[in-house]
Amino acid sequence: MDDKQGFFQRVYEVVMQIPYGRVTSYGAIAEYLGSKGSARMVGWAMNGSHHQPDNIPAHRVVNRNGLLTGKFHFGGKDVMKQLLESEGIYVEDNRITNFNEVFWHPQEPG
DNA sequence: ATTTTGACGACGT
DNA sequence: GACGTCGCCAAAA
Q1: A18-47: pLDDT as tens digits
Q2: What is the average per-residue pLDDT within A92-106?
Q3: Which strand B bases fall within 7 angstroms of a protein CB?
């Protein structure tokens, strides 16, 4: 909708489409956007997600290992973990144990 | 305009 | 299989 000012807005739209109780990886989003190698840009976009008008479930985005790499950006140290657990996602030692079960891919039903 | 960065990923050792 | 390095690419300083 409206004009996409850049790569960031594109990322936000995809992240907001992540279903409840599901997670995805930076690379998956980047690949969906056509820039497979720009997984870092996705994370960077998340850095600005806080000042976005919409609620960006950035806690549902983890790296390809299912590791909560960006948990430090949520203010607290275990905020991200608790958010994921609140959605039925099992997290242990900053890592999603059932990552394979809750993994979600953009533009795919599930 | 150039340089630095950065919540990653894949490959090499 | 753990650790190290390179590569990608776009935005902020």
Answers
A1: 999 999 999 999 999 988 888 999 999 999
A2: 93
A3: 6-10
Q: Which two tokens stand for residue A14?
A: 């995809």
- Rounded to whole angstroms, the distance from the CA of residue A3 to the C1' of nucleotide C3 is 43
Residue A70 has pLDDT above 60, yes or no: yes
Domain boundaries, chain A: 3-102
Query: What residue has token string 């990552």?
Result: A99
**What CATH class is the domain A3-102?**
mainly alpha
A59 burial (CB, 10 Å; 0-12 / 13-18 / 19+) is buried
Q: How many CB atoms lie within 10 A of CB A94?
A: 16
The whole-model pTM stands at 0.90
CB < 7 A contacts with chain B (nucleic strand): A 25-28, 38-44, 46-47, 49-50, 58-59, 61, 63-65, 69-70, 73-74
